[in-house]
Specification:
heterotrimer; A mainly alpha (about 325); B mainly alpha (about 270); C alpha/beta (about 525); A: about 325 residues; 13 helices; about 80% helix; globular; C: 22 strands; about 35% helix
Chain lengths: ~325, ~270, ~525
């Protein structure tokens, strides 16, 4: 078990290292010098040089890469070209919106998908299954940002249960904060729940064909007991993979959904940074997103071992 | 032939037809501004109504189908053209450094959701439909590489492949002659699903301004434009949304139907 | 007094008739074996008793357990019977257990689901039955997971689950088919002992007539959903009435006559071959352990000789086969065919490959389903410098298909149009078409029904005469090896422990392992063959 975890951890660190090189290299290709972009074409040579020194642009590329990485390791993401404030502070503020939103959506998606998938698998071919499958087929096809607009139209504009956009902040209380994230979370969660429910159902149906399910029935378990006691945990193995992948989609999806609800999250930050050519912010946000995805996949790998004893002892 | 297949094929061809016809005919010029007729609800003159510039939405939807299909199709093409050979090679040299490099590379690309790739590309080169194609295409490569490798690995264990090896055939030849035809069904089905995901991704990227730029019409940007007007002109948001749903639903049904028709044992990866 | 009484059982699935008018009965303490070839309906009969039939099945007639009707009984009542009054053991021990639950939990579940005991009592009982089936808790604690056990040990767990509540009736569906002969003998002994001890009835489903003859009190022979003959074992074996029964027993002990080998020039020379695999490390910093699958193996196969290779699973015979075929490189030693190495440098030697072909076990996985027979069997021709073309190629195909007992017209068919036995003929045709000096038969008749197997063995004998075949015949089935080879090697844990003339090895085995192997193999009684 320890060896398995260490091996995954090593692979995590390696992936992060390669990802950081790729991101840095891509941003380096960007034409133009940030300092001259910030100061305009008529800047004095010495002001330019001073600014370049301030931004850490006056050293070699390799040196800059290591400065960037070593800074990130201690939480220093550099200074924003446009706002001249620490990037880490800007990201931390926005993360308090984007991360809770993604987790909220992941929770909703799992809470909806598990019962729906298990219900459908238990009633394979019956009207209940067909209804769930029809609904998920539709759910998979709906773009989440359009669904978000429809939620705004119905629940904010017509019914006035929620605000059409904006974020109250966590200062006014956790409930108020959650309330303003509810519509965005639903918009993100439902299409993902549709996918997850389909995966859950097909994983369970695969398990139902396994020999050990027949053994369970021969012991005297009824179909429902066999499904719950022997099916669900085995089906979790493929389902966990999808949950891990979905987290990255939720994080990316939240960038789009923030646009619909005018939420001050990472998405807004990154789009503002792109239009202002504030590349250090773009670079850092992208690295953060990739870090989140890779870390979640690491956690999923550990969760496998918790579910599957074969993985635990192989090492 | 299942109901899924027929319905999926009908919906998909409807959208494809709209895209093709738009090259020679649209009810109105999709770009022509006509302010006096702005914000009309669907009527006999303008079947899907008009937008805030008085442009005919039906025409814009037809031309938008063109953008969506082109972007998604080329992106799937990129994913298959690079992913399938990589997957075949990794399976043929299972356990070697080549396999390891390809699989680690796959994992790495999976860590960059297509939106993140699009953000990076846009930050460096500026926005455009080509960026969307590249971003979605890059993300498709590991999808195809992974499913091809998975299917090919189990085929390599089969005795008819061993027999071919005993007959002196090399790995490349076996991959093309025996493996590829036997994973073709899987690739067709997965390709259909990736096509539908590509349509969704393109819409998302255009919505946030990372996809096709004006004046090229795209469904995602139509939705972005509609956002501020949704309270008094809901058709502006409803119609492009329905267009996306019909297309994606059609392709998904087509994919499921093809799977049932070609080989029900095929497992599609859906992320 | 009867325990189980099946009367006039007729079964259809989605309108297709599977069983017609089955009658059989089992008394307490009695072993009744139902036997027959694939498609005979023997497994379906067992599932009907359990009422675990596939969807769409409709059964008529009567199945009485202890005088109570089981057929079409409401599902909740059946759930109470299963596990407590009827236990069942399945064929595949590797997949019959839930991989994510401990063996203790799985055995206790039988007890707890029927609320027969409180958890503490169930735990004690689980230990007790696991001990009874030969898994003492001090060596096999309840916290073991299935993947930590061998196939035979897993089958013992399955049996423990089935007998935990001392059911009156035990059903065993091919319980030893997936196991090695020595393990099979132990499991059969265990079942026999349990029947006696608990005074259970045992309904044993098996295709293996030697097992049947050895174990059963009563035999039921089935064919295509009907019972063709039934009776007490001793009586039935001596007075077979139905021609099918007779054919079945004849085919099971089928013997062929091989032509004498002509020359004594060496064809295949295997010298001191070693093949190791790296095992996963036990600790992070431990050196990776090596498993020696083939351990200093040397032998020579002369031209015209028919050599057998027997051994249990994991003994290294598959690895050795792959090395001989040039599919894998060996770490040490040399394999020469006609004086040339199979591996030249790090690449397989094509000049040697064309002298060697193979026939595999699985008649279903051996062919690319997308190609026609003509293309399938001509694949090895690619090894020739000047492959025959045009009418010459057609003639070659026609000749070879005729030689294996098919027709020239079959060349244009797809492989799914053929039965298992016919596919094995196609596989032999593919091996023969290049006129190889050596053919390797890798478990080539193991997946076939006995009657089909007999036909393929006859075909091999004919081909030996017609084409002067030299072959290496790898099998776990001792009776087949005994008749189809002239010389035999016994392999165990990567080593060849004994080799010699087939008849003398079987009649007078020298090595202890060979003796054990031959003693464990169930034998058909001689009288049945007359």
């Amino acid at each position: 078990m320890l060896r398995y975890a260490l091996k995954r951890l090593l692979s995590l660190i390696l992936s992060l290292a390669v990802a950081s090189v790729v991101i840095f290299a891509v941003i380096e290709i960007a034409p133009g010098d940030p300092a001259s972009f910030m100061l305009g074409v008529n800047a004095q040579a010495d002001t330019l040089a001073a600014l370049r020194a301030e931004l850490g642009l006056d050293v070699s590329k390799v040196q800059r890469y290591f400065n960037w990485v070593s800074g990130m390791l201690v939480g220093d993401f550099g200074t924003s070209y446009t706002y001249r404030t620490p990037v880490s502070q800007m990201i931390a503020d926005r993360l308090w919106v984007s991360l809770p939103l993604a987790l909220y959506a992941l929770t909703l998606s799992t809470l909806i998908a598990f019962p729906a998938g298990i219900y459908a698998a238990a009633r394979r071919g019956k009207p209940g299954d067909l209804a769930v499958m029809g609904a998920t087929q539709l759910g998979v096809a709906v773009p989440n940002f359009w669904f978000a607009m429809m939620l705004v139209l119905i629940f904010a504009i017509n019914l006035r249960w929620f605000n059409a956009g904006g974020f109250s902040g966590w200062d006014t209380g956790i409930l108020a904060g959650l309330h303003s994230l509810t519509l965005p979370a639903i918009a993100l969660a439902l299409p993902q729940a549709a996918i997850l429910a389909r995966v859950m159902r097909s994983a369970l149906l695969d398990i139902l064909g396994e020999d050990f399910m027949r053994t369970a029935r021969a012991k005297g378990l009824n179909p429902r007991q066999a499904l719950w006691r022997h099916g669900v945990r085995n089906a979790l193995i493929p389902v966990l993979t999808i949950i891990g992948l979905q987290f990255s989609f939720l994080l990316a999806g939240s960038i789009i959904i923030e646009q619909v609800f005018y939420l001050p999250g990472l998405g807004r930050l990154v789009f503002q940074a792109i239009s202002a050519r504030d590349l250090i912010v773009v670079e850092s946000v992208v690295m953060l997103l990739v870090f989140a995805v890779i870390t979640v996949n690491f956690l999923v790998d550990l969760a496998y071992a918790a579910v599957d004893p074969r993985l635990r002892s192989r090492t | 032939m299942s109901r899924n297949l027929v319905l999926g094929a009908c919906l998909s061809s409807l959208v494809l037809l709209a895209a093709l016809v738009s090259f020679v005919w649209t009810p109105y010029n999709y770009a022509a501004l006509n302010i006096p007729d702005k914000l009309q609800s669907p009527n006999t003159q303008h079947w899907f109504g008009t937008d805030h510039f008085g442009r005919d939405i039906f025409s814009m939807i037809m031309v938008g189908a063109r953008t969506s299909i082109a972007v998604a199709l080329v992106a799937v093409g990129i994913g298959m053209a690079l992913g399938v050979p990589l997957g075949l090679a990794a399976a043929a040299r299972k356990g070697s450094w080549l396999d390891e490099v390809i699989m680690r590379g796959n994992d790495l690309v999976f860590a960059f959701p297509s939106l993140v790739i699009a953000i990076l590309i846009t930050a460096v080169f500026g926005a455009g439909a080509v960026n969307a194609i590249i971003a979605i295409g890059i993300f498709n490569i590991p999808v195809f590489a992974r499913i091809t490798r998975g299917a090919a690995l189990s085929l390599w264990e089969r005795e008819f492949i061993l027999a071919a090896r005993v007959a002196g055939k090399g790995a490349a030849r076996i991959s093309i002659e025996h493996i590829l035809p036997n994973v073709a069904n899987l690739l067709i089905v997965q390709g259909t699903i990736q096509f539908s995901l590509g349509i969704l991704a393109e819409a998302g990227l255009s919505y946030v301004g990372l996809g096709a730029q004006p004046p090229t019409p795209s469904w995602g940007r139509m939705l972005a434009d509609a956002q501020t007007m949704v309270s008094f002109a809901p058709h502006l948001a409803l119609i492009p949304g329905f267009a996306i749903i019909v297309t994606v639903l059609g392709l998904n049904l087509l994919g499921d139907g093809l799977r049932d028709w070609l080989d029900p044992r095929i497992r599609v990866a859906r992320v | 007094m009867t325990l189980l009484q099946v009367k006039d059982l007729t079964l259809g699935i989605h309108g297709t008739n599977i069983l017609s008018h089955i009658n059989l009965s089992i008394a307490p303490g009695e072993i009744v074996a139902v036997t027959g070839e694939s498609g005979s309906g023997k497994s379906m009969t067992a599932l009907a008793v359990m009422q675990l039939l596939p969807n769409g099945a409709r059964a008529e007639g009567s199945i009485l357990l202890d005088g109570q009707e089981v057929l079409n009984r409401p599902e909740p009542e059946m759930c109470q019977l299963r596990g407590s009054s009827i236990g069942m053991v399945f064929q595949e021990p590797m997949t019959a257990l839930n991989p994510v639950k401990t063996i203790g939990d799985q055995v206790m579940e039988t007890i707890l689901i029927h609320k027969a005991m409180p958890p503490a009592g169930a735990r004690e009982r689980a230990k007790e039955v696991l001990n009874r089936v030969g898994l003492p808790p001090d060596k096999f604690p309840l916290s073991r997971y299935p993947h930590e056990l061998s196939g035979g040990q897993r089958q013992r767990v399955v049996i423990a689950m089935a007998i935990a509540l001392r059911p009156r009736l035990l059903i065993a569906d091919e319980p030893t088919t997936a196991l090695d002969v020595t393990t099979q003998a132990q499991i059969l002994d265990l079942l026999k002992g349990l029947v006696k001890e608990y005074d259970m009835g045992l309904l044993m489903i098996t295709h293996d007539l030697a097992v049947v003859a050895d174990l059963a009190d009563q035999i039921v022979v089935m064919r295509q959903g009907k019972v063709v003959e039934t009776g007490a074992t001793g009586h039935l074996l001596e007075h077979m009435q139905h021609p099918y029964t007779r054919m079945l027993f004849d085919a099971s002990g089928h013997k062929v006559t091989l032509p004498e080998p002509v020359s004594s020039t060496p064809l295949l020379e295997v010298t001191d071959v070693v093949r190791e695999y790296r095992l996963p490390r036990h600790h992070l910093f431990a050196a990776p352990a090596q498993q020696r699958a083939v351990d200093h193996v040397s032998f020579t196969l002369n031209k015209g000789e028919r050599l057998g290779l027997v051994g249990e699973s994991g003994c290294g015979k598959s690895t050795l086969t792959r090395a001989i075929l040039g599919l894998e490189q060996v770490q040490q030693g040399q394999i020469l065919l006609d004086g040339q190495p199979v591996f030249a440098g790090h690449k397989p030697n094509l000049a040697v490959r064309r002298k060697m072909q193979v026939v595999f076990q699985d008649p279903y996985g051996s062919f690319n389903p997308r190609h026609r027979v003509a293309r399938l069997i001509t694949e090895p021709l690619h090894l020739l410098d000047h492959p025959p073309a045009g009418s010459e190629r057609q003639d070659r195909i026609a000749e070879i298909l005729t030689a294996v007992g098919l027709g020239p017209d079959d060349a244009n068919k797809y492989v799914h149009e053929f039965s298992g036995g016919q596919r094995q003929r196609i596989a032999i045709a593919r091996a023969l078409i290049i006129r190889p000096a050596l053919i390797v038969f890798d478990e080539a008749v193991s997946a076939l029904d006995v009657s089909v197997r007999a036909q393929i063995l006859d075909l091999l004998a004919e081909l030996c005469a017609a084409y002067d075949l030299t072959y290496l015949f790898i099998s776990h089935d001792l009776s087949v090896v005994r008749t189809i080879t002239t010389r035999v090697m016994v392999m165990r844990a990567g080593k060849i422990v004994e080799q010699g003339e087939t008849e003398s090895v079987f009649a007078d085995p020298q090595h202890g392992y060979t003796q054990k192997l031959i003693a464990a193999a169930p034998r058909l009684p001689e009288l049945s063959i007359t």
